[in-house]
Here is the input.
Amino acid sequence: MLYRKFALVFCCSLLVSVNALAQSAYTPKPGSAEREAIIDALRVPAKKDLGRTVIFKVDQLRVAGDWAFARVSPTLPNGDEIDYTKTKYRKQVELGAFDPQAETLHRRTVEGWDVVEWRFGATDVESVLWVQKYDLPKSLIQ
Here is the structure.
C-alpha cells in the first residue's frame, strides 16, 4: 500500500515537472496591460540600482505560465543614454567589463508581477542558471 502511494506521488510530481518544462512562451504585445505591468515592476529595482528614474527599451520579453523573463536596456526618460561613468558602475565601464543591459525574472502573484531576479551591468549571462534554479520552462529564456 505504501509503495502504491509513493508511486502515485512520484508520477504526479513527474507530470507537473514535465508540464512546466513543456510550457510554451510568448511575447506580450507592446501597449498591452500585461507588458506594462511586467515592465513597471522593474522601475523600483532600476531606480534603487541606478539612482534615477529610467524608462526601458525592451530587447526581449517572454512569458510562460506565471513566469516572465525580460532583457531590457534602461535609458533616461527623455530617451538619452545614461552616462554610466557617473553611476556606481564607473569602474566596470572603465575596465570594459560592463553591459548596459538588465536581465530580469518575474513571477506573477495575486498582486501582480514581482521581480525575483534583477541582474544589471554584468557581461556574463545568468539567465541560463535561472532555468534550473527555479525549474523554469526553457522556452522562457530562448
Q: What stands out?
A: The domain at 24-140 is CATH 3.10.450 (Nuclear Transport Factor 2; Chain: A,).
